[in-house]
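INPUT
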Amino acid sequence: MCGRYANTKSGEELGRYFEADEVDEVRLPPSWNIAPTQQVPIVVDRLPKDDPDGMPSRLVTAARWSLVPRWATELASPYPTFNARSETVHEKSTFTGALVRSRAILPADGYYEWHTVGDGAKGTVKTPHYIHDPVEGELAFAGLYSWWRAPVAEGQPPSPWVLTATMLTRAAHGPAASIHDRAPVMLPREVWDEWLDPTVEGDQDLVTMVVHESEQVLERLELHPVAPLKGDGPELIVPLG
DNA sequence: CCAGACGTTGTT
DNA sequence: GTCTGG
DNA sequence: CCAGACGTTGTT
DNA sequence: GTCTGG
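OUTPUT
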């Protein structure tokens, strides 16, 4: 799972870290409390417009967190699409198109998971934990993106395109597994290129590969409890106590 | 074949 | 309790 | 994912 | 658009 995370880096900083060739002018204020449907930074590789055989270039841009497939008629989905299960992403019509050739990285400083104690009934306590990579200081969530625009009546001016994105999830592993059974798929540097390559047709084998590679990241994560996530600011990731 | 859905997490 | 906006 | 709202009529 | 349950 991952339904809340932090990103405080500018587009320029992300461009340097992810070895991007271009950075779109994106207004993304630092946030320690990013929620689904908000704008988030994403990293994509795209082919030159007029030369599909040319070299891809790497771009940092912004997308709405919750993937909307091209055929959807509304921006707001009646079902959640901010996560995509790695186990089934290849067979879900909402995600299949994006898996084939629209893969992305969603950068993060760290993310949150809630440790639930109790049976869900009265007395259940949920404690948020902040989870991050002390080695790299940055996480690269494996994501997918999709362009969408609202349909319009014949003869009307077209609606603007909206870039949307989601991130893959997997069974938890490593330290974070002690508090929760799902985790985002996080990419080590050595698989960024293959995951982002738009000339590689994404399939379940590719997903299986990155899920496997994500274990080295999961194994080195650190986590600590934090106060309830209200508002926004650096205080949200301060260890509780 | 068409009609209708198209999703995740967590909890039971 | 349940829905929804962020 | 959680946090916060959850409603109407009529009057100002 | 694509998948699947009937």
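end of record. The longest helix of chain A spans residues 204-219.
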